[in-house]
Predict the structure.
Amino acid sequence: MEKADVVIVGGGVAGLAVALTLCSESNLDVVLVEERSVGSNRAVPAVFQEVIGEFGLEDSVLRYYTQFAFCSPLGPVARFDYRWEALAALDYRRACQVLYEQAAVHGLELRRVRAVNWSPATPDPLQPLFVHLDDGSTIQTQVLIDASGQAQWAARQLQIRLSPYHSICHGELLTNCSIEDTFTLWFLAADGQY
């Protein structure tokens, strides 16, 4: 049976950023479990410029923005003008690949399998957790991080009500259309219909 200090479920930006931080700033054995390839969900995340510099994601930037506009489903719009390129849209797959490559240099192990469940069913912080994978293997760990986003893997395992929210907003970078204000990142708040 394999042992790891930390198991992370989910190979998107959230899981990879945590993995990179743990691998580069500690001596912990970290295993990332991702059934598909890293960055396989197709979001276009918007991040603050500090994140780009901190994680070396300069080559992943699709576009920089100087303004942010929040549109409420009730109609009002709040606009923030940073007067500098404070926000950026990222090429999600490229950003994930960059994060993975950096974390792998620091010892991250990627397992391309699906996490099935864990035991014991009710985790005890004083006892190890056994993460069972669909290839029949098991990883013993003390720390399990659910970075599965919308899949909400841990909530499903605990059989608790799924949250309507998850770690990242899904975005689109629109091309070949007429937009008067190309320096504003627009956030359309969700409502019952969307």
Observations:
- The chain is about 20% helix and 30% strand.
